[in-house]
Specification:
The mean pLDDT is about 90. The protein starts with a helix and ends with a helix. It has helices at about 1-10, 15-35, 40-55, 60-70. By secondary structure, the chain is mainly α. Helices cover about 75% and strands about 0% of the residues. The chain is globular and about 30 Å long. The protein is built from four helices and no strands. Helix 2 (about 15-35) packs across helix 4 (about 60-70) and helix 3 (about 40-55) runs antiparallel to helix 4.
């Protein structure tokens, strides 16, 4: 529910689409590792960043994903 409210607060449809995909990927990452979304630590975000880079994500994509997660 909070995810939908958060996305709805974005005025651009493109932003909602991009952030929605990024946050879904973050949720999937946390779920796969058994991480509690409300208890992640900085090293968990570092691991996520490293996995994005290892998967071939470009710097701008990594930055967008991290920005979304930090929102």
């Amino acid at each position: 529910v909070w995810r939908d409210r958060w996305l709805a607060s974005k005025t651009s449809a493109r932003t909602r689409e991009t952030y929605g995909a990024a946050i879904a990927r973050w949720f999937a990452h946390c779920d796969a590792l058994g991480l509690d979304l409300w208890a992640v630590e900085p090293h968990d975000v570092d691991d996520y960043r490293n996995r994005l880079v290892a998967a071939g994500a470009q710097p701008a994509t990594v930055a967008r994903h991290l920005s979304t997660v930090s929102s």
